[in-house]
Amino acid sequence: MDRIRIVGGRNLNGTIPISGAKNATLPLMIASLLTDQTLILDNVPRLADVSLLQLILGNHGVDIMVGGKRSGETADHGQTLHISAARIVDTTAPYELVSKMRASFWVLAPLVARMGEARVSMPGGCAIGTRPVDLLIMAIERLGAKIEIDGGYVVARAPHGLKGAEIVFPKITVGGTHTAIMAAALAQGTTVIDNAAREPEIVDVADCLNKMGARISGAGTRHIVVEGVAKLNGARHAVLPDRIETGTYAMAVAMAGGDILLRNARPELLQAALDVLKHTGVTVTPTNQGIRIARNGAELAPVEVTTAPFPDFPTDLQAQLMALMTRARGVSHIVETIFENRFMHVQELARLGARIQLEGERATIEGVEQLKGAPVMATDLRASVSLVIAALAAEGETIVNRVYHLDRGFERLEEKLARCGAAIERLSG
Ligand code: EPZ
């Protein structure tokens, strides 16, 4: 089991290339099921979740060719995937695959839209919460599919195709919105989606689907309209930069001190998080190459933050912000409103000397002068990187165990940080 060893106290200076967004790549790959032609995706990050989804799509009969290196390309370039779902030979997504990555449940919509049937394992809970899929099922049912739950599988049937309808989400759900858009793209007639998620990844997927011939308007707002079409074609689409990776490295620089260019980052994808960072005293400077983040000696001011759907402060940056605030000059409060159990990094941060109190969904972080390195345990993707952020400023050595969580969502993290001066290395085995 790989571990990561960090010796804190080094500043970070230089450039960090931001990879394509994991949370756009996964639904974009799944959207390939909607057409029998080839979808080409550029700027795809090299992540464990992407490799796993390739396996899952392969099980449905999808061919995926990974483009080779091109002259002048470095490892900082994303990879190109040529994805062809010409023939879907199996409409079942098995438990042993879906249980490994929750987003694979999203194959339900394109399978039932294109094939008239789907049998997808319920994903089960995960470390950060129960994460039900009732709203994703509601969306498919509203479009005319017959749904039954059989032995832990969602069985959806629409032998005569899906029909446009009005879908009103009682709560904002990213997966629900992806599901509704993908199913509606091939439905007969018009679908209106109300209280839709506004995340940039929704917009990126809608942009790609429109290149494939879909007719989607309003993506990025709470009100999306989809005119169904008979079939979709292939297209070529570049994945947008990862706003969560951007925010994560911005907080790493803020914690360690230094001056870093986050290359290819786009400020409008994470403005709320950048505003919070500015409030802490960090310098945030958009440039034509990305975003420059610097903190040279200034103290970190405490913050009051509540996570919420886009465009507000993202839950996927909550653990990273908490790590940063362990060294603020004063007391911060962070309220987590999206997931019911997304504070598992708290106990691990406490092992490094952080002072954090929890009352339900509210965390109170009392900044301390100095953290001290220690062995810690990663529990989920974003919690694991919060431990890396804390370790960058902790005195002495920190060993982060179970780094497979990190590999799910951060491409070559230790290399990107080491290139900027961090004392960080991966210990294999
Ligand atoms: C997406 O998950 C992201 N995953 C998550 O990122 C992210 O934290 C989350 O959106 C919120 O922004 C991907 O994009 C692959 P939701 P998703 O449906 O779609 C409840 C990461 O670290 N809900 O927006 O599963 C749910 O329990 C991951 O990259 C229902 O009640 O999240 C949660 O409380 C972690 N019923 C809230 O809605 C449903 O049917 C928001 O969940 C669906 C969701």
Secondary-structure map with pairings?
Layout: E1 3-7, E2 12-17, H1 22-31, E3 38-44, H2 48-59, E4 63-66, E5 79-84, E6 92-93, H3 95-98, H4 108-115, E7 117-121, H5 134-142, E8 146-150, E9 153-157, E10 166-168, H6 174-185, E11 190-194, H7 200-211, E12 215-217, E13 223-227, E14 235-238, H8 243-256, E15 258-263, H9 271-280, E16 283-287, E17 290-295, E18 304-306, H10 318-325, E19 331-335, H11 345-351, E20 355-359, E21 362-366, E22 375-377, H12 381-393, E23 397-401, H13 404-409, H14 413-418, E24 423-427
Parallel strand pairs: 2-15, 3-14, 6-7, 10-11, 18-19, 22-23
Antiparallel strand pairs: 1-23, 1-24, 3-5, 4-5, 7-9, 8-9, 11-13, 12-13, 15-17, 16-17, 19-21, 20-21
Helix pairs in contact: 1-2, 1-7, 4-6, 5-6, 6-7, 8-10, 8-12, 10-12
Overview of the structural elements:
The chain has helices at 22-31, 48-59, 95-98, 108-115, 134-142, 174-185, 200-211, 243-256, 271-280, 318-325, 345-351, 381-393, 404-409, 413-418; strands spanning 3-7, 12-17, 38-44, 63-66, 79-84, 92-93, 117-121, 146-150, 153-157, 166-168, 190-194, 215-217, 223-227, 235-238, 258-263, 283-287, 290-295, 304-306, 331-335, 355-359, 362-366, 375-377, 397-401, 423-427. With 429 residues, the chain is of the alpha/beta class. 50% of the residues are buried. It is globular. The chain starts with a strand and ends with a strand. Strand 12 (215-217) and strand 13 (223-227) form a beta hairpin. A 4-stranded mixed β-sheet has the order 22-23-1-24. Strands 2-15-17-16 form a 4-stranded mixed β-sheet, covered by helices on one side. A 4-stranded mixed β-sheet has the order 4-5-3-14, with helices on one face. The mean pLDDT is 96. It folds into 2 domains: 3-15 and 299-427, UDP-n-acetylglucosamine1-carboxyvinyl-transferase, Chain; 22-238, Enolpyruvate transferase domain (UDP-n-acetylglucosamine1-carboxyvinyl-transferase, Chain). The longest helix has 14 residues, at 243-256. The chain has 14 helices and 24 strands. Residues 23, 26, 103, 129, 131-136, 171, 173-176, 315-316, 338-339, 381-382, 409 line the site of ligand EPZ.
